[in-house]
Amino acid sequence: MKKILLIVAVSLIGFSASAQKFAHVNFQELVQLMPESDQARSTIQESQKAAQESYQEMMNEFQDKYAKYQQNVNSYTPATRKTKEDELTQLQQRIQEFSTSVEAELQEQQQKLMEPIYKKAQEKMNEVAKAGGYIYVFDRNSLLYVDETQSTDITPECRKALGIPAERTLESLQAELAAKAAAAANAQ
To answer: Between 3.30.910.20, 2.30.40.10, 3.30.1390.20, 3.90.76.10, what CATH number should domain 18-187 receive?
Structure first.
């Protein structure tokens, strides 16, 4: 009798496990291809460009003052030399402080811009998973192995729910970004 109960219990566990539905999704692909990500990338690039221009202006000022200092160092009195060296040191410190603060600000801006995008992608993925009756959805990028016969890729359904055109891929996105970078480089 105990053997029969054991066999039934093992069978029920096996049946229960096989009735569960598993899915996987390429979450990073969803986030990167969302139309909202294009706007966020554009905003971040504009901010980076403005920061780079400010940094370059500061560096140019430093280089000009340093070249002038080098050119006239022998004619300066000790007090003038000390003043010029202090000025260069302060300018160098301002440049370093600017660089550090702008880097932190750009990271914060990126986080603020991307947070609602990640949230929207998560919500749509949850809706698709719930509608499909999946009990687990794994991120494709963090899996070492997936048996495609026992797990369903819901990335296409999520792409559709997020309004990502079928023809848009990570490769086409990379091509778009490369073309924009080349156009920007040619404009300079």
So the answer is: 3.30.910.20
Q: For residue range 17-47, what is the model confidence (pLDDT) as tens digits?
A: 456 799 999 999 999 999 999 999 999 999 9
Mean pLDDT of the chain: 89
Alpha-carbon gap, residue 95 to 144, rounded angstroms: 44
C-alpha span between 130 and 124 (Å, rounded): 10
pTM over 0.70: yes
Q: What is the pLDDT of residues 128-152, one digit of tens each?
A: 999 999 999 999 999 888 888 899 9
Q: Is 58 exposed, middle or buried (0-12, 13-18, 19+ CB in 10 A)?
A: middle
Whole-angstrom CA distances from 17 to 4, 11, 12, 25, 120 are 20, 10, 8, 21, 31
Cβ-proximal residues to 133 (8 Å cutoff; 6+ apart), any chain: 21
Token pair, residue 185, equals 């480089």
Angle between helices 35-72 and 78-132 (to 10 degrees): 170
